[in-house]
Design a protein that fits this description.
The chain is an alpha+beta fold. It has five domains: 86 residues, 3-Layer(aba) Sandwich (GIY-YIG endonuclease); 145 residues, no CATH class; 112 residues, Nucleotidyltransferase, domain 5; 162 residues, 2-Layer Sandwich (Nucleotidyltransferase, domain 5), CATH 3.30.420.340; 57 residues, DNA polymerase, domain 1 (Orthogonal Bundle), CATH 1.10.150. The strands form four sheets. Strands 12, 13, 14, 15, 16, 17, 18 and 19 form an eight-stranded mixed beta sheet that branches. A five-stranded mixed beta sheet has the order 9-8-7-10-11, sandwiched between helices. Strands 2-1-3 form a three-stranded antiparallel beta sheet. The N and C termini lie far apart (88 Å).
């Protein structure tokens, strides 16, 4: 905690209840955060009160504050203008800072008669033809991909005519996305025609392209070139189909920006969809450390549009904030005419915001090594169990034995919704004999957290504190482990997985009773798979120990063969069958064997032979 907290709070309590800008300074005197407030005293004093309700980003900032200053303004809107100016001037560490580092993109047409279409970020002096520049790399990439598919142009690394007939056509040919000039059967005139049609499509758009293609098709039909007319007809259909897909996404979309965010575990991803002419022409994604989404939306908008001059007339966001009208006014002044900033609640606009938010979640999930589906299941699990944080690292335990013999436990780990097999662990129950699943589970978790206190922090397996622990069992197992947690000062969410009469996962139980999950299909499937996995792992270990015990018991019954010698024999010969087939010389040569013990083993497995000899 900041040692100057009381001093800073006392100073903050002396601020006026007026609008203005506050400027936080670090220990070196540099500016680390700039904010605005409707009432300076109320806003700034919040930073230096209780830290329990602050997100991690704010706590880190407060810990580094050495002093602050403030500037009074006539209105909150004036404070917003001043805040934008100061942030742009000083770029404080703890403000959301975006960089306008998007370069220009180009459409590249390769040199030669058989040139290919591609998109690049820089022009090169390589003899190729470049069309552009374009500001939106997303638009260029998408448009070139569309053109190559519609006009069946090659996207492989083969060079023509050098690579004619050197290899079989790739998959794109078989799914009718490439005319396969590699076969050597495509005429140069037909290839050039398709390339030129693709360039017309990229330069003029789909509607203009359809008109030109229709004229070419009619001309070919009049000249009785029916095959060529049929090929052009198919291209027209492909162009129209691509346009229909765009209409499904943006049938009545205004020229606007759609902005939404997804936050988890101290990270926030903002996604921006930019529409123009009813078509998605650009998208951007930004991931950074952040606090609560609702408070960050305002800060993101200010940072994002400070860098841009092309502000649209309409902006849709997924959450409102107190200064929405002031930010709308600031954007309007920056654009030169009215900008409408809305938070859609229904209809197509709300659907677009939801789609934008889903893409933000996907981007954040990919950074963490998960899919948006896995992220969604974990979020559903968090809500169902009432957890504060997303359970990204889950441990699940099961006990296995047969009538109290060979008691073992298995621990499986799921990270970001996927099994992390390198962190799986096995336990042999050592504290007692007989069958007691509650005591077995208590011993397992006791040993697990004893290892946690010994291990280096952060190590996968025992060295990492999980976000959630699940036990295969009901209230009894949960109560037994809860006592272990209380004794060892472990604070981890703990629940049991309850099965029905058909051995299927039915509910989750905790300290407050059972929580049914049968109606939540994705969560039900996820927990069932986890419970099946831990059962498979535990019972597999149990079977291995029973098998080894059976092997050892058959050997230790032989005179002169104890536990150590039995293990050595099994390790050397691998199986009991191999030991039974070994001759006396091979047994004598085995590690830890004497001549007498070798003879005893040999006689044991060859009793009939030795009796006959006698």
């Amino acid at each position: 905690m900041n040692p100057k907290m009381q001093i800073l709070r006392k100073k903050a309590m002396g601020l006026p209840l007026l609008p203005g800008v506050y400027i936080m300074h670090g220990k070196d005197g540099g500016i680390i955060y700039i904010g605005k407030a409707k009432a300076l005293k109320n806003r700034v004093s919040q930073y230096f009160g209780s830290q329990n309700n602050h997100p991690e980003k704010v706590r880190r900032m407060v810990d580094n504050v050495d002093d602050f200053e403030y500037i009074i303004t006539d209105s909150e809107f004036e404070a917003l203008i001043l805040e934008c100016s100061l942030i742009k001037q000083h770029t404080p560490k703890y403000n959301i800072l975006l960089k306008d580092d998007k370069g220009y993109s180009y459409i590249r047409v390769g040199e030669g008669d058989w040139g290919k279409l591609s998109y690049v970020l820089q022009k090169a002096d390589d003899g190729a033809t470049y069309i552009g520049p374009y500001k939106s790399s997303f638009y260029v990439k998408s448009a070139v991909e569309e053109a190559n598919k519609i006009f069946m142009l090659p996207t492989c690394n083969r060079q023509f005519p050098r690579d004619f007939r050197k290899a079989r056509p790739c998959l794109n040919y078989h799914i009718k996305q490439c005319m396969a000039p590699c076969t050597g059967r495509v005429k140069l005139a037909d290839y050039r025609e398709s390339l030129n049609q693709a360039l017309d499509f990229l330069k003029g758009g789909s509607s203009n392209s359809v008109k030109q293609l229709t004229a070419q098709m009619e001309e070919a039909a009049e000249n009785l070139e029916f095959e060529r007319a049929a090929r052009i007809r198919d291209k027209i259909a492909a162009v129209k189909k691509m346009g229909d897909k765009q209409k499904v996404v943006a049938n009545k979309v205004l020229d606007e920006d759609v902005i939404a965010s997804f936050s988890n575990d101290g990270k926030t991803c903002f996604q921006v969809f930019r529409f123009e002419g009813g078509r998605l022409f650009d998208r951007e994604s930004f991931i950074f450390d952040s606090g609560e989404t609702a408070t960050d939306t305002e800060e993101f908008l200010i940072s994002y549009y400070t860098l841009r001059t092309d502000i649209p007339k309409n902006i849709a966001v997924d959450s409102g904030f107190d200064a929405l009208e002031d930010v709308q006014r600031w954007l309007s002044e920056k654009r030169g005419n009215k900008v409408t900033l809305t938070v859609p609640q229904r209809g197509e606009q709300a659907q677009l915001v939801a789609m934008c938010r889903s893409n933000a979640a996907e981007a954040l999930a990919q950074q963490k090594g998960a899919t948006v589906h896995e992220f969604g299941v974990l979020e559903e699990l968090r809500q169902t169990l009432g957890l504060e944080n997303l359970p990204e690292y889950i441990e699940c335990y099961d006990i296995s034995n047969l009538a109290g013999t060979e008691n073992v436990a298995g621990m499986v780990v799921y990270k970001n919704g996927r099994p992390l097999k390198s962190a799986y662990r096995k336990f042999k129950i050592k504290g007692f004999e007989g069958q007691d699943d509650y005591a077995s589970m208590a011993e397992t978790l006791t040993r697990r957290f004893e290892e946690y206190y010994k291990a280096e922090a952060g190590d996968e397996g025992f060295g990492k504190l999980p976000d959630l622990i699940l036990l295969d069992g009901g209230k009894g197992q949960v109560a037994a482990v809860r006592a272990v947690f209380d004794r060892m000062n472990i604070e981890v969410p703990l629940f049991g997985l309850v099965k029905d009469d058909k051995h299927r996962t039915r509910a989750v139980t905790g300290d407050g009773g059972e929580i049914a999950i049968s109606q939540k299909r994705a969560l039900f499937t996820f927990l069932s798979k986890m419970q099946d996995e831990v059962h498979r792992f535990a019972i597999g270990y149990h079977h291995t120990r029973r098998k080894n015990a059976a092997f050892r018991s058959s050997l230790t019954g032989i005179e002169g063969v104890g536990e150590v010698r039995a293990k050595s024999l099994l390790k050397y010969f691998r199986t009991i069958d191999n030991i039974s087939k070994a001759d006396l010389a091979e047994l004598e040569a085995a590690p830890k064997m004497t001549k007498d013990s070798a003879r005893a083993v040999y006689r044991y497995f060859h009793a009939d032979e030795t009796n006959t000899e006698e």
